[in-house]
Amino acid sequence: DQMDRKEETIMQSARMIGRFCRDQNIRHLDRTGVARVLEYSMERTEDKEKLTLELGDISDLIREADYFAGLDQAAFIERKHVEEAIQKRIYRSNLIEERIKELVEKDILWVETEGAKVGQINGLSILVTGDHEFGKPNRITATVSVGREGVVAIERESKMSGNIHTKGVMILTSFLKERFAHNKPVSLTATLCFEQSYGLVEGDSASSTELFALLSALARVPIKQGIAVSGSISQKGEVQPVGGVSRKVEAFYDICKHKGLHGGQGVIIPAKNIRNLMLKQDVIDSVREGKFHIWPISTVEEGMEILSGMEAGTLQPDGTYPEGTLFRKVDERLMEIAEIVRKFAKEEEGTGKPGQEGG
């Protein structure tokens, strides 16, 4: 029934496009042209099962495509004419996007797509300029030390974090307690930072990314730099859907393509965002050929295994994680930090001042 309704919606939209062309006295679209207009309509909604109701926008697109069909002396508006109209729209609005790409390609904005590093990961955000939106990669780093401050976001401390982003960072502490505080207090000082970010950081779509960087820093296990991540996180370690996923994938793909595709690069997205993917043909072709990858995940464990190449590990009845797993390394590090904090606190109680003998 759902498929029948979808087909009927598409047929109704195609008939509406035909009536519009007749009423406006412009060329009719052939099958390929109609298909591209419908794809564009889905792209606007970021949902494969919905079409946009912004009819004025669609009407303008068809008129622009008719102009390019006229230049081509074509009898019908074809897919290539609609595509050219779409690309010209993007060109008129994407100056800032092009400048950011240029800075990344010149390594002024630092985004790595090769090798592996501890506590460093590629996050993905969305920027909107007028009616144009595009993805922007962000290098996110994490450091861990002995202390009791918990997880600290440098953006929050410098008043550059919005409320939703701050909430996302607080959830990271809750996740650590849920996974590792069953037999010890979680005592640590960890800092997270969006490197080379000079404006307000808002939204929770990078919370899973920040968690992966934090777990990497705790376990001292490197993360593959050829992989970027988007997705929000729950206290239970569930990876939740986010907005703008197609533009985020395309942004990282463009950088990897410029720096060289080697088959190990790709983007991790929430599994529930699969229905929102409306990617340009270049990305689709590279995924089909195995040059680029899109990994849908539902849990933190799945993401860490892709990023690190190590099994994450499941809590055993005895309260430990299996030997050789990433979570075992995290658990041991947290145990080590907790013990140092305990000894330091005991020393303070005995002497009044740390590092001095009582008398």
Cα-to-Cα separation, first versus last residue: 84 Å
Principal-axis shape equals: elongated
Q: Any idea what the radius of gyration is?
A: 25 Å
Strand order of the largest sheet: 4-5-3-2-7-10-11
The overall average pLDDT, rounded, is: 86
Number of helices: 12
Give a quick account of the main beta sheet: strands, pairing sense, barrel closure: 7 strands, mixed
Bin the helical content: 40-55%
Uncertain residue ranges:
355-359
Number-wise, the strands total 11
Structural class: alpha/beta
Could you state the order of secondary-structure elements as H and E? Answer: HHHHHEEEEHHEHEEEEHEHEHH
What is the beta-strand fraction? 15-25%
Model description:
With 359 residues, the protein is α/β, with parallel strands linked by helices. Helices cover 48% and strands 15% of the residues. The protein has 12 helices and 11 strands. Strands 4-5-3-2-7-10-11 form a 7-stranded mixed beta sheet, sandwiched between helices. The chain has a two-stranded antiparallel ribbon with strand order 1-6. The protein is elongated. The relative contact order is 0.10. Residues 355-359 have low confidence and may be disordered.
In short:
The chain is of the alpha/beta class and 359 residues long. It has helices at residues 2-24, 31-45, 55-71, 79-93, 95-105, 154-157, 163-180, 207-219, 245-259, 281-288, 300-308, 326-351; strands at 116-117, 120-129, 132-145, 150-153, 189-194, 223-224, 227-229, 232-233, 239-240, 266-270, 293-297.
